[in-house]
Structure formats: C-alpha cells, structure tokens
Design brief:
Largest sheet: none
Strand content: under 5%
Structural class: mainly alpha
Number of helices: 47
Helix content: 40-55%
Number of strands: 0
Radius of gyration: 28 Å
Oligomer: single chain
Distance between the termini: 4 Å
Shape: globular
C-alpha cells in the first residue's frame, strides 16, 4: 500500500528538551540539585510499569508488553498501557482483545488504526461468530474487514447483508493482486456486470489504470469500449484519440470519458478543445459524478484562459461547476468567479452573487471575513455606499483575520479600537469537565511519562472534543508544561472552529532573542514563525526545512556566512534561538532585496525569491503606483503562497498588538503597501473585457439570496435593512474524524477531509446522522467515484477585447506542475498552517517535484492534510479535519486516507 509521508518523525520527542534548553530564562547561580519531583498524575509504580511497556514495545516484545500492561494498578494508566500495546500493532493481536479494548475506550485516539489493524489480521479460518461479535456495533473500515464480515454473514444465512458488504468491498476498496484473485475465486458468482463496471469506474476516476485494466475482461462490450478509451486518454496512449473518436456521441458524453478527454487535450496544449468540452458539460453533480475532479481541470483551464485574455472563458470555467456547498473547492470556485467578474469583466452585480454564495456556505472567521469584504467591494463598485459599509462591518467582526483587519480600516471608528484580548482562566466547572474525560486523564499522565509523540496524538484528538475556552485553557496549560507551544497554537486554531477562541492560546507569547530582533521587527518574526512551524523547534519538512523558521540548511549556511555567524546544521533543530537568528537575518536580506516590500518578502520566504521575480514579470510590480498590491497578492499563482502571505500579515498585526498594546487593526494596509505608494488598495479600476458569459446557475442565486436579501424576522419588522450573518456551526454537530486513517464505505466519510461545515443556507436540509448504515445491514453500495484530491488590473478608458493580452491569473498547482512556473525552487520553504512537525505537507514546490501520474496513482485526495493546508486554510476545515493528517502521521498511518490507494 503506497503511503505519502511528509515528515521525518525522528527526534520529535526531543522537542521538549530543545525548548527547555533554549527558551528558558537565564539560569540562576549553581546550587545543589534538589531531588527529582515525583509524577504528578500517576503513582511511581504505575509510571515505572508503563515505561516498561514502552521499552518492551521498542524491542517489539509484544507478549511482555501485554503482560506488563495488565499489572498497572490505576484503571486509566492501565488503559494507557493497553493503548501503547494496540497502537504498536502486534502482528498476533487478538480479535477478542481488540474488541474489548475498543468497547472500553471509545473516546480514545487511534480507534480506526487499532480497528483496521485487527481487521487486517482476521483469518479466513476465524469463526464467523467471532467476526460478527467484532462488528456488532461498528462498521468495517478496510477491504479485509468488509470481506470477513461478508464471509461471516454468508455463513450464518444473512445473504443480503453479506452481499452488500461484498459489493461494497469490490467496488470501493483496493486489493493487491493476490487478494483480488482470492476474492474473485470465492465470490465471482455473486458479483454482477454492474459491480465490475462500478469498480472500473471508481479506479479510473482515481487514475489507477493498471488496477482497472484487470477488470476490463469482466465488462460487457459497451462498457469495455468506454473503459479502454478512457484508460488510453488518461495515459496519453498513441491510440487515445482514435479510440475516443470511435465512441458514440453518447459514450463521449459519459462524465468519466469526457473528463479524461478534457485532461488529455489540456495536456496536449489543445486547451480550446478542452474548454469546449467543459462548456458543454452538464452542471449537475449526479451527471458529472465527480464534480471535484472536474473542478481540478476547470481550475487549470481557468488559469490558461486568463493568461490568454479569454476572460469570458475563464469566468465560465470558474462558475460552471457542480461542487458541493461547504467544500473548499466550492468556496474557491465561487471566489474565483466573483473575482474575475469584478476585476476583469467589470460585472459587480454578477460578482456579488458569487461572493454571497461563498459567504452563505462557509463558517470559519477567515472565510466569512473574506466573503463579506469582497461583497463590500462589489457594493462599492455599484455605488451602494451604505450597503458596502454594512458589509465591511460584518467583515470587521472577525478582527483576527486578514480581511477583517482590512475591513476595519475601511470603516474606522470602534473597529480600530479592538486590542489583543487578555487571558481568561478556566472556571471550576470547565476544569472538572476537562478532567472528567478519561483521555484527558491519560494526557496528564503523558506529561509524567514525557512521551511527546503520544502527547501530541492525545492532544490533537482531545481538542476536537472541547467546547469552551476554559477547556482549551486546560489543554494549553498541559502543552506549556510539556514545553510544546505548538500544541497550544494548534488547540487555539481548533478553538476557533468550536467558537471558543482565546487569543493568548492561539498566539502564545514566545520570546524573540535580541540576536534575531536586530534583523527584523519582532512581530513579523513571530507572525512568520507561527505560520512556518507553530513554534515547533523540531519541525522538519520533506523539503529539508528545519526548526522554528523552517530554514533550508543551504540557505542557513549562506546567511551565516553573510552575517559572519557560526554555522551549525544540528543547531537549526536543537537551538530555537539560533534558528530564529539565522531566519531573521535571511528575512532581512529579502526585505532589502525587495526594497522593503513585505508582501514580496513573505512570498519569497515561502516560494523563493526567483519565483517572485517571475511573478513581477507576469503580474506587475506591487510597489508600482499603478498596481493594487491586494490584487497582486490574490494573483500569486500558488494558492499556498497566497494564503501564506495573508496569514503572516494577519499574524503580524496580532503580535504587534500583543507586544505593544496597540489596536489590532489600523496598520495592515500600510504593511501591504510597504515599498510603494500608499492608498492603492481598491483604487485601481477593473478591466472590462468583452465576451459571452453564461447565466448564473439558479442554485447559486438561491444560495446568494439569504445574504443579498436577508429575511426580515417578525420582531425586526421595523428594521427592514437589518442583515443576518451565517452562524458558525455548532461544534457538537461535527463528526470526530481526528484519527481516521482508513476510509469508510460511506461517501460522507470518504469526503470528510475536504469538507468545511458551512453556515447552512436557508432551507438547506441538515445532515441526518440517523441515515448512516448499520454495521450488519448496509445498503447495497452504489458506484462511488473517488473524490478529487482536486495580473493586476490596469486603468482603462474603454472595454478591451476578450482576446487582448492579459495579466496572468493562476491558482496553485495541486499535483500537477504549472508548465509556465518552472521547477520548484528548493531554496526556501514555508508551511501554511501545518500541524506542528508536519508543515511540509503544504509545500507546493515539493509536491511539484513528483510526477503527476505518480501522485495520481497515490490518490490526490490522499495528500489529505497537506491538501487541506495548501488549498483550504482560508476555508478552514472542521476541528476534526484540522488534525486528521497530523494524527495519521503520528499514529503511523501515512496520509489520512492512504487505504484508498495501492
């Protein structure tokens, strides 16, 4: 099974030591060493036994670990010892023991890892009753589990239930050749042509062509012709066009075939033909089957159209979609459609519809602020000043966000009076609620054991469950006790989703050494470090970036030489102050190179200085008088870098307020415009391209209606202009997916990494958890496509041609290298809100180093957390999703949905 790994975990446990050594205050005069304090949360004997369990597992002595764990006296400590044992994946694990552990500890982390391992260790000789008891109240997570449950159900006469699980496994799971042959040998008579066609379809959506071809011989003639043509298109075979052209018109209109053709023609640089196919495709999800896959191609074609001045086509590529509201792709598509309409087509009314649909379907403050800010910009463009002001006020409610801060500057007054919020202690009730969770008690014990890996797993799992500021305060205090401020930052980010935000937890007070502060302002050192590593001194990226400020060793060496400082490669991870000093020096060199421009500096720190030079050539110089620097940010071709620049600027405003006591908002515009003239944001006129534009989809207009025409409540009949803002979703309504490493059979679970819980539009049905299938009686699975991983405007006096030379608009390539961007530059690296120790998964440059088809074979969605970070940090996943990828790495499961891929 192929697994996409992002971070080297070696040395992770040394993070506490690194902080203790480097971030501690100046030591006092030497004195006699006092006796070591005893454990705070467990007995000395239990601490010793749990450590013996860990030691046995390090030796792979599972039998000793299991027996030693049984000797632990305290029930919670004993459960913790058992967790260590099951998390280590004993090859001889007992199915009965696993069931007993999972039943006794339902709220502990690694549940899916432990269950999945047990399923994979089930034998074909395991008694059917044992299998049925294991799955009595849980769904199988793996192909092996589904097959074993089907076998047990067939053996006990539950034919329909067994057939449903068999079909589910065959259609939706991946098997190696030997397992696939065994399945066919035992059950081919129970599978239909429709089942084989559905499996083929799913594999081809995932571009797993080799696996799909093994099924071709079982298809009927018509399905095989389509599958052969589709596979040829996906692999760019020499006979691809011939096979495609020989298909009937109806077969060419099949969504899978059509999208394979779109991809084929785009990669052959026949983009107009690809655009034509997309324009003529339906815009309903049922017909498209995998709208997120379509969006991936449309996004690339949108960039191509913008590069070539074909703005109407670019708008069509952005707006002609069937994406699910609440997903990151939906938010990005609607923003792109609105932005193109506003800035390149001079269609503010049309843009307003898209920004409203975006705003109605997001719940995170970053996303809400962005939606309301651009709604205000659309209103301004239509001359509706009062409406624009009201919308800026809505955006400014989210003062800890980039667009909220910009909106506050627009309206002034009280919006510019908000300061960094002081800490609030946990109430006795909150402390008791936190302590009452067995997993919380185990987390406290881990501070005695000093096991950072386990501490991170439990902390990232527990913060999904918390619902109040005081509970997050308790978690943050434990993190500080472990010298792990990165865990506190992570908890602070999750708290935002759970409507329990505490500024001092999300933005901890980390000391900036004088050796670093002499190179750059402390607020940008802190703002950038928070974005790079969440202050994790041991953060180590796939690209080789290290430490708090994520320095590439070659860059660190060059910087040390330039400043006459001693260079130590090991100190980049071992000494946070040393890392901060070299990182800040490097930052100062970039500031000087770009004449004080912070936005160019931050973009260069993340993507490389040479790339910024290329973007200046393509989109203009953001320091120039005729360039709107906010538009320049939004035109950065890599979505990760766009987000990175905004987050570092946002963080810097907050840290400036924390360090100086000044208001949070008021200086962001100046920071954006550094290095150039002031008052340029929003002052550059839009382009006004000609072209035939598609009608706005009725469903988009319906979503926009509650924002553009808010309903008047009975009690507010006297206030006809009152607006309502979508509420942040109730955290208790979210599904916990924090330790899921294997996908479930249900589509909702399979798509969980990509979903943001939206503020439900008026009339939108709520998700009905009761509809979930039971373990024993699943519905017959339907074919399920694998989800997709998926220029500065100038003043102009008259409309320009749709084919005029155009400034470039791009979005970050996800798994495919932008042919015009060049190879990834390894000189610099920056994470984008990546979890502590795992931020490299967001490295777009590193992703670009992989061959597209290799990434595709591994499954684009299964970049999981990295995909979330690089693409949707502005859309903010749910609290559970936020940690899913980090937990998957920590528990040894690879990416959060690696089981989808061979």
């Amino acid at each position: 099974m192929r697994k996409i790994r992002a971070f080297a975990l070696a040395g992770l446990a040394a993070a506490a030591g690194a902080y203790a050594a480097a971030f501690a205050a100046t030591p006092a005069a030497p004195r006699l060493k006092p006796p070591a304090p005893g454990p705070a949360y467990m007995s000395v004997d239990d601490l010793s036994r749990v450590r013996e369990v860990k030691s046995a597992l390090d030796r792979r002595d599972f039998a000793s670990a299991k027996s030693l764990g049984a000797l632990v006296a305290d029930p919670t400590a004993r459960s913790l010892a058992q967790w260590y044992y099951f998390d280590a994946e004993d090859p001889q694990v007992s199915i009965e023991d696993t069931r007993a552990y999972l039943d006794a500890n339902p709220d502990w982390p690694s549940q899916n890892k432990i269950q999945g391992h047990a399923e994979e260790r089930m034998l074909w000789t395991t008694p059917p009753q044992t299998i049925l008891e294991f799955f009595d109240h849980r769904d199988p997570l793996t192909g092996a589990g589904k097959l074993q449950l089907a076998r047990a159900q067939f053996a006990t006469g539950a034919r329909e239930a067994g057939l449903a699980h068999l079909r589910d496994a065959w259609i939706n799971e991946n098997f190696d050749l030997a397992d696939e042959q065994r399945l066919i040998a035992n059950y081919s008579g129970r599978l239909t042509n429709e089942d084989h066609a559905a499996r083929t379809d799913r594999l081809l959506w995932a571009r797993q062509v080799t696996s799909a071809r093994r099924v071709f011989s079982r298809l009927d003639a018509g399905e095989r012709r389509k599958a052969e043509a589709r596979a040829a298109l996906l692999t760019a075979a020499r006979n691809a066009e011939r096979l495609y052209n020989h298909l009937s018109e109806a077969d060419r209109e099949d969504a899978g075939v059509a999208l394979a053709a779109v991809r084929y023609f785009r990669r052959k640089h026949e983009e107009p033909r690809a655009v034509s196919i997309v324009r003529n495709a339906p815009d309903d999800a049922e017909t498209l089957r995998a709208p997120d896959r379509w969006w991936y191609e449309q996004n690339l074609l949108m960039r191509w159209a913008m590069k070539n001045g074909q703005y109407a086509d670019a708008y069509a590529m952005a707006s002609h979609h069937a994406l699910t509201p609440g997903t990151s792709d939906f938010a990005e598509a609607e923003f792109a459609a609105g932005w193109i309409a506003l800035r390149f087509l001079n269609e503010p009314a049309r843009a307003e519809q898209h920004f409203a649909a975006l705003t109605a379907n997001v719940g995170a403050p970053i996303s809400l602020a962005r939606g309301w800010y651009w709604l205000a910009r659309a209103a301004e463009a239509m001359g509706e000043t009062e409406k624009a002001t009201a919308r800026y006020e809505k955006a400014a409610e989210h003062i800890y966000t980039f667009y909220g801060q910009l909106a506050a500057e627009k309206i002034g007054g009280e919006a510019l009076m908000r300061h960094f919020e002081p800490p609030a202690p946990a109430t006795p009730e909150e402390k008791a609620r936190f302590a009452a969770r067995p997993a919380s008690a185990a987390l406290r014990m881990l501070t005695d054991i000093r096991d950072e890996r386990a501490f991170l797993i439990f902390a990232y799992h527990i913060d999904d469950m918390l619902g109040s500021r005081g509970e997050f305060r308790e978690l943050a205090d434990l993190a500080i006790a472990m010298n792990a401020p990165h865990v506190a930052v992570r908890a602070g980010k999750v708290a935002v989703r759970n409507d329990a935000f505490s500024a001092d937890i999300a933005y901890p007070d980390v000391a900036v050494p004088n050796s670093a502060a002499r190179f750059a302002p402390a607020e940008i050192i802190l703002g950038l470090s928070r974005q790079e590593s969440e202050f994790n001194p041991r953060a180590y990226s796939r690209a080789g970036a290290r430490g708090v400020m994520q320095l590439i060793p070659s860059t660190a060496l060059a910087t040390a030489r330039k400043e006459g400082l001693k260079y130590s490669r090991s100190a980049l991870l071992d000494d946070p102050h040393y890392n901060m000093t070299l990182g800040s020096a490097h930052l100062s060199h970039l500031i000087a190179r770009f004449d004080g421009s912070w936005i160019m500096t931050f973009a260069a720190y993340n993507a490389g200085a040479n790339r910024v030079d290329q973007w200046v050539d393509a989109y203009g110089d953001p320091r120039s008088a005729g360039i709107d620097p906010l538009d320049w940010i939004e035109q950065i071709p890599f979505e990760e870098t766009r987000n990175y620049v905004q987050r570092v600027l946002e963080n810097s405003q907050i840290y400036r307020s924390r360090l100086t006591g000044k208001a949070i908002a008021g200086a962001l515009s100046g920071d954006i415009e550094r290095g150039g003239a002031s008052s340029r944001i929003g002052a550059v006129a839009p382009l006004e391209a000609a072209g035939v534009l598609p009608e706005i989809q009725p469903r988009i207009a319906d979503m926009a209606a509650p924002i553009l025409n808010p309903p008047i409540a009975q009690a507010d009949a006297q206030a006809p202009h009152a607006q309502t803002e979508p509420a942040v979703p109730d955290s208790k309504a979210r599904n916990s997916r924090s330790d899921r490493r294997r996908k479930s059979a249900t589509p909702a679970r399979r798509q969980s990494i990509r979903l943001e819980q939206p503020a439900a539009p008026t009339g939108a049905p709520a998700h009905d958890e009761s509809a979930t299938q039971s373990a024993q009686q699943p519905q017959a699975p339907a074919p399920q496509p694998t989800p997709a991983p998926v220029n500065t405007p100038a003043n102009t006096a008259e409309p320009i041609s749709a084919n005029a030379a155009a400034p470039v608009f791009e979005t970050a390539p996800r798994n495919e290298v932008d042919p015009d961007a060049g190879a990834a530059e390894p000189e610099y690296f920056g994470g984008a809100d990546a979890p502590a120790g795992f931020d490299d998964m967001a490295d777009i440059g590193a992703d670009a180093a992989f061959a597209e088809d290799d990434i595709a074979a591994a499954g684009e969605e299964c970049l999981a957390y990295g995909d979330y970070i690089a693409r949707t940090a502005r859309e903010e996943a749910t609290a559970a999703d936020l940690n899913a990828g980090a937990l998957a790495e920590l528990i040894g499961g690879g990416s959060a949905c690696d089981a989808q891929n061979p």
